[in-house]
């Protein structure tokens, strides 16, 4: 006579443990994850005032016991949060190994001298945590490590035979944000992965860049979440080739312009639109808006010569050369020049009033344009007669004159037609690549960035090697980051709902929680735990699957609400079905699953649903 389902389950567990019930209880406390021995300090939900919506992702991370705020922009990571960060790091390690990258850990203290040499110190002063030790040495809490890693490689790598080289770390970074906000999305301390690549030639560096992009896409594919890749601006990092990786989210601070008909995808900051003369809109008359701003004089080059042999030696030791060259800016704070002295000319821009001006596009034409000015009239008054008139191609020349002026009899304006649209992209605008009217705008959270740096750091910091001809050549570099703590915050923000967090399977602190009821004993919950864990791993090819038992002395309703708040992908409940027919209730909120499953089928059902999580 065949054994019943419950008998087979008990026989399997007995064979696994081959011990007494007392021994199995000891295993329960020492070899299995239990919430009675794992600190998860969740908080009850505050009463919401009328009109408030459910908590956002960051609020839920705090309420669910993943984080606690230490001060604005600084957070302590609690055990649940640390499990998520560790899983992100493990996934990073997996994909960095495919690139042949070696893992290291760089100091959080970075020498200000190196930042002086690279030219980045003074441009970023407000956001740097700077400190001086008792001996007068100046350091900063590193927001990034290009200078330090370049200095290491400079002394360690001498020959082209040592390249290519790929080094990465996962470490804490620091940035003195003026307005920390959105929790982990814009903080003053954060965890980040940096991959630094070193190649002999630009051609080799671009091959490395392509390999990194492939690894990044594989990494983000493993998250099983939708993401966007967009061409981006390198900004203060330097270099001329970079891409951003984003999660689409209404809480994102970036806007991605993407064409649904072709592969064009670009950050709004880099978007340049083209006017379609065949679309029938060329003759459409737009109301005109005017923007004005100053074009500053080009910065003056100044040369500092050493006044003594001792100073020359100091320059050589600190900067690698015996003379210094710097650029003097024309800012009111830095000099006593008048507005007229600082401004070379004034730019007046004419564009359609129903569109938003794209200052990033205009700065492509006039790099010295000051877009931060809030009172353009003082510049206009100071530089009367030195005005450049730039019009969008959708604005006619006649529209650039004041309405009460007969432009045919007045002195003509020196009008320049822009070679591209001067406004930001809008939904259904014409794609500049394929010409289809299929542009879509996505608010997004940046979670990764890849940069080709070229010799931006190797040249000023002296990271050169001898090539095959024994000639010195600056190393070609790349820098590729993933915001580890930012990824946790972005995922929480993207997937959170009114009930709590919703983790993708690969990042969840635990992939499954088992909850007993009055219809099941602690030992029975443990037996189901062991049975499922064993069979999920065996049937899936050793899937990395972890689970936790909620054995706390709390009401069932409280436990289930807590499980929803934390956001486990799977919840297994041993309720009435267990008492009557040894079946459990399987829940997956993200998938909308709530069903009764026999224990023998539970492992296979979890494996099947896992493909969607």
Automatic annotation (TrEMBL):
The keyword Membrane does not apply. Keywords: Aminoacyl-tRNA synthetase, ATP-binding, Ligase, Nucleotide-binding, Protein biosynthesis. The keyword ATP-binding applies. It holds the Pfam family tRNA-synt_2b. Residues 81-490 form the Aminoacyl-transfer RNA synthetases class-II family profile domain. It catalyses: tRNA(Pro) + L-proline + ATP = L-prolyl-tRNA(Pro) + AMP + diphosphate. GO terms for biological process: prolyl-tRNA aminoacylation. Its EC number is 6.1.1.15. It is an enzyme of class 6 (ligase). GO terms for cellular component: mitochondrion. SUPFAM superfamilies: Class II aaRS ABD-related, Class II aaRS and biotin synthetases. One of its GO terms (molecular function) is ATP binding. Belongs to the class-II aminoacyl-tRNA synthetase family. This is proline--tRNA ligase. The lineage of its organism: Eukaryota, Fungi, Dikarya, Ascomycota, Pezizomycotina.
